[in-house]
Design brief:
GO terms for molecular function: carbonate dehydratase activity; zinc ion binding. By secondary structure, this protein is mainly beta. Helix content is 9%, strand content 43%. Bound molecules: zinc ion.
Length: 211
């Protein structure tokens, strides 16, 4: 499916009260002692999938999210970030899409900040070929793209691309992960901006969980 980030109001949508992304206002979040994320085992990308708007790679990995079992499916990137924290946008956000055995979707959102180069991102950039799906010659270890501590903002929302289905548990990590300035520039050379506009929170709670 193709869609145009310059004409987002034309995107088809079947419902509309629980959409993503959102601006997370930290003074309004509710605290919880729940353990949001426990990474379990190695995250590894094995295939890069052809996409017009983003670098997407699928592979293996597993996590407990709110104490339930999820399998990692794919990672992809948005520049600039889609979610905001207190109105502030990071230069890049990546989505680690997970699914449970019963089909529940859960996405862990991670913000990048400019700092030292990220070897996991470099591994993906090195093996990227425009708009073709291919097995990676060398599987890419994704460990450096996973934060390992901090606060996670949990809420219920939607896919941020059509069909915008309201079927997603979101886990937005407050702690950022470093990527190199030249890596961000290389990524932006490949892809135009692909952030969906901020959506109304409506009556949804946002839970701050530990991690
Ligand atoms: Zn995404």
């Amino acid at each position: 499916m193709t869609f145009d980030y310059a004409h987002q109001t034309d995107w088809p949508m079947t419902s509309g009260q629980h959409q993503s992304p959102i601006d997370i206002q930290t003074q309004h979040v509710q605290s919880s002692q729940l353990s949001a994320i426990n990474w379990r085992g190695l995250y590894q990308a094995k295939t890069i999938t052809g996409e017009a708007t983003t670098l997407k790679a699928s592979g293996i990995g597993a996590a407990y999210l709110n104490d339930r079992d999820f399998a990692f499916q794919q990672i992809h990137f948005h520049t600039p970030a889609e979610h905001l924290i207190d109105g502030q946008a990071a230069p890049i956000e990546w989505h680690l899409v997970h699914q449970s055995a019963t089909g529940q979707l859960a996405v862990v959102a991670v913000f990048g900040r400019i700092g030292k180069p990220n070897s996991s991102l470099q591994g993906l950039l090195d093996q990227f070929t425009a708009q073709t799906s291919h097995e990676l010659t060398t599987p890419v270890n994704l460990t450096e793209l996973l934060p390992d501590t901090g606060t996670v903002y949990h809420y219920l929302g939607s896919l941020t691309t059509p069909p915008l289905s309201e079927t997603v548990e979101w886990y937005v990590c407050a702690d950022t992960v470093m990527i190199g300035e030249q890596q961000l520039a290389a990524y932006q050379q490949l892809f135009a901006a692909n952030n969906r506009k901020i959506q109304p929170l409506n009556d949804r709670p946002i839970i701050a969980e530990r991690f």
